Amino acid sequence: MVRKESGAAAAQMPFNAYDDAPVLAISQAAALAGMHPQTLRQYDRLGLVTPRRTMGRGRRYSQRDVAKLLEVQRLSQEEGVNLAGIRRILALEEQVDRLQSRLDALSARLEGGRVFAAGVSGDVVMVPRGRRVRRGSPEDAGRTVAGQGTETRALVLWRPGRGD
User: What pLDDT does residue 15 have?
Assistant: First the structure.
């Protein structure tokens, strides 16, 4: 997730590990966000910004929560979005963050390119690096040499991000 600051200082800075630590009492978080503590309680009831709780049920806010409070305030005051709209925007931003993380993980798995071939039965199989495919039994589909012999039908190499 990226920190978004309101106003002219709309610089984006990545969060660090300490930004998720629930260390701020409601009065401290309210002061940092420039809001009344009752506003934070209302946002908690509405599910806009939900802080963690102590054993005694006291609210504890993190720096990430304060950034979210500032974003809620900006959307409400500068953009004129109502609280239901803000809830939807925040939910969609969280969904985008989750999907981006998933995409990054899947992209990392595909780094270096992979080779796929069609097996005899028509199944698509991944060919391990350094191996080649030749037409043979379905068991041989991912283990033998491509381009050798006249029975090879096709081998397709696809590398994402190269003009596709």
Answer: 58
Alpha helices in 111-163 (DSSP H): none
Give dist(CA 159, CA 116) in Å, integer.
Answer: 11
Closest by Cα among 87, 32, 22 to 59: 22
Q: Which two tokens stand for residue 63?
A: 């720096």
d(CA 13, CA 42): 28
Q: Which is nearest to 68 in space by CA: 124, 24, 128?
A: 24
| Residue type at position 137 | S
Average confidence (pLDDT) over 60-72: 94
Asked if residues 142 and 121 have their Cβ atoms less than 8 Å apart, the reply is: no
Which string of DSSP letters, residue by residue, matches 24-62? B-HHHHHHHHT--HHHHHHHHHHTSS--EE-TTS-EEB-
The pTM score is 0.56
Q: What is the Cα–Cα distance from 57 to 131, expressed in whole angstroms?
A: 59
The tens digit of pLDDT for each residue in 79-117 reads 999 999 999 999 999 999 999 999 988 777 776 566 677
C-alpha span between 69 and 81 (Å, rounded): 14
- Over its C-alpha atoms, the chain yields an Rg (Å, rounded) of 26
Phi, psi dihedral angles at 14 (to 5 degrees): -70, 150
